[in-house]
Write a structure and sequence with these properties.
The chain has 517 residues and is α/β, with parallel strands linked by helices. The protein has 4 domains: 274 residues, Aldolase class I (TIM Barrel, Alpha-Beta Barrel); 29 residues, no CATH class; 47 residues; 112 residues, Alpha-isopropylmalate synthase LeuA, regulatory domain (Double Stranded RNA Binding Domain, 2-Layer Sandwich). 41% of the residues lie in helices and 19% in strands. It contains 18 helices and 14 strands. The strands form 3 sheets. Strands 1-2-3-4-5-6-7-8 form an 8-stranded parallel beta barrel, surrounded by 7 helices. A hairpin with a 7-residue loop joins strand 9 and strand 10. Helix 3 runs antiparallel to helix 12, helix 7 packs parallel to helix 8 and helix 9 packs parallel to helix 10. The radius of gyration is 25 Å and the shape is globular. It starts with a helix and ends in a 9-residue tail after the last helix. The protein binds 3-methyl-2-oxobutanoic acid and zinc ion (ZN). The site of zinc ion has 6 residues, from loops.
């Protein structure tokens, strides 16, 4: 094992904004990507893969802006092994104080023959050329062997050696199709450590997909064999079955430090917030029994378990909810609470908002407190995270009245402001939500298809706020809108309007060229 690998610090490379965003329905707009990147930086993530700059102007802009704002994490962009990709990537990450180009090419027989249609020797040349070119533009270059886990060992060793010789500082071995099993994948990493002569000049990295549900197990096995960078995503978001979940990697290492004596720089107390932010923005909810961040991950339902927990928490709890930032629902503030108390609550919840944003949130909090007796931490989080106020708003929700029930067809009377003009309409439909959405279409005609309509209760109880997610699709562009309100139907209208506003912003952007990594 080389000197760099003796170091037990694991570099956390988050690819929520690149591989995560590539998963169906997970697209985020610029402002959302900036919010996720800011939280990843605050969490202490070492490397943020912010996007694939050549893929679209939107991706380029997102990587550039993240590079211009993130200072403590390395900002990375993805590039295929071509000059055009690498140049565009270098341009996108230019403003970042810590920047990285991540370039990749497939090395498995299957990918080289059918996808690339390149002979292995030409792939090997491309490895050297692409890494050399990337190194002429930035100091920090990562090279990935796509489908590395299904590559022939001798050829993989030659590619890795060539990439390091050309200047790659990080060598990533993806299990692109989630095919590997832990002892096999661990052995692959050990084989590279043993056989590649210049391996001591690079950090070995792993990038595991979860097709067989083994992404985290494979990543941890690789760490035990010498990998010192793990690529992962919040909530395990990613292509197909997703990527290794960052929260599981980080908490696995923290909780089982006895068997896995490695450290990360991640502030685990921000995990719950990050999970919630990503699921709110993407509209992809977390399954209740998901490890670490599922709603039931710390719930003890059975009598025997509850009894044990009361006697000693460790009987059934291997980590505390607080360690991942999950706190008991606490009663926040009432309608008489003032600005100072509200500001201090925002600070406790980890929000560092500017004066205007605080003022805005305070106004919405007062409004909520008028309608809801008990306002909890979760209500405040929903108030901030679900607000569409940051999206440019050509359409504004003004009012809604709905008549429905078992005796009459539903009737929605909706008032919106569109480009400064107020409009009111009545509509009916198959149920009250359908009636509301018809009313929106009548006031603002459009062809976008509704892909997702989802309702969550923010807290327990019948007075809970409803948090509604709406996903719309128009000409291959997808947007996700959110709305929260004590009235589920108002939340539905707000979520639809929020999605439409995002769609209008997206319509103005140049159409993306379809492309996958
Ligand atoms: O899964 C994969 O192989 C990738 C590479 C581009 C790193 O995402
Ligand atoms: Zn991937």
């Amino acid at each position: 094992m080389n000197e760099r690998m003796d170091n037990n610090r694991i570099i956390i490379f988050d690819t929520t904004l690149r591989d995560g965003e590539q998963s169906p329905g997970a697209s985020m707009n610029l402002e959302e990507k900036l919010r996720v990147a800011a939280l990843l930086e605050e969490m202490g993530v070492d490397v943020i893969e912010a996007g694939f700059p050549i893929a679209s102007n939107g991706d380029f802009e997102a990587v550039s802006q993240i590079a211009a704002t993130v200072t403590r994490s390395t900002v990375c962009g993805l590039a295929r092994a071509t000059k055009g990709d690498i140049e565009r990537c270098a341009e996108a990450v230019r403003a970042a104080p810590l920047k990285r180009i991540h370039t990749f090419i497939s090395t498995s027989p299957l990918h080289m023959k059918f996808k690339l249609q390149m002979a292995p020797e030409r792939v090997l040349e491309a490895v050297t050329d692409s890494v050399t070119f990337a190194r002429s533009l930035v100091d920090d270059v990562e090279w990935s062997a796509e489908d590395g886990s299904r590559s022939e060992h001798d050829f993989l060793c030659r590619c890795v050696e060539a990439a390091i010789k050309a200047g790659a500082r990080t060598i990533n071995i993806p299990d692109t199709v989630g095919y590997a099993i832990p002892d096999e994948y661990g052995a692959l990493i050990a084989m590279l450590v043993a056989r590649v002569p210049n391996i001591d000049q690079a950090i070995l990295s792993v990038h595991c997909h979860n097709d067989l549900g083994l992404a985290v197990a494979n990543s941890l096995a690789a760490v035990q064999s010498g990998a010192r960078q793990v690529e992962c995503t919040i909530n395990g978001l990613g292509e197909r079955a997703g990527n290794a979940a960052m929260e599981e990697i980080v908490m696995g290492l923290r909780t089982r430090a006895d068997r896995l004596p490695y450290q990360t720089g991640v502030k685990t107390e921000l995990i719950t917030r990050a999970s919630r932010l990503v699921s709110t923005i993407t509209g992809i909810s977390v399954q209740p029994n998901k490890a670490i961040v599922g709603k039931n991950a710390f719930a003890h339902e059975s009598g025997i378990h509850q009894d044990g927990m009361l006697k000693h928490a460790q009987t059934y709890e291997i980590m505390t909810p607080e360690s991942v930032g999950l706190h008991k629902s606490t009663l926040v503030l009432g309608k008489h609470s003032g600005r100072a108390a509200f500001k201090s609550k925002l600070k406790d919840l980890g929000y560092g908002l500017g004066d205007n944003a605080v003022e805005d949130a305070f106004r919405r909090f007062k409004d909520l407190a008028d309608r809801k007796k008990d306002v909890f931490d979760e209500d405040i989080v929903a108030l901030i995270d679900d607000s569409g106020e940051t999206v440019s708003q050509r359409i504004r929700f003004l009012s809604l009245e709905v008549l429905c029930g078992s005796r009459q067809p539903p009737n929605a009377e909706l008032e919106l402001e569109i480009d400064g003009q107020t409009g009111k309409v009545k509509a009916t439909g198959d149920g009250p939500v359908d009636a509301i959405f018809h009313a929106i279409r009548a006031l603002f005609p459009h062809d976008a298809a509704l892909q997702l309509f989802q309702v969550h209760a923010v807290t327990e109880g019948t007075d809970a706020q409803a948090e509604v997610t709406v996903r719309l699709e128009e000409n291959g562009k997808t947007v996700t809108g959110q709305g929260a309100d004590t009235d589920t139907l108002v939340a539905a209208a707000r979520a639809y309007v929020n999605a439409l506003n995002k769609l209008l912003v997206k319509r103005e952007k140049t159409p993306p060229q379809a492309m996958t990594a």
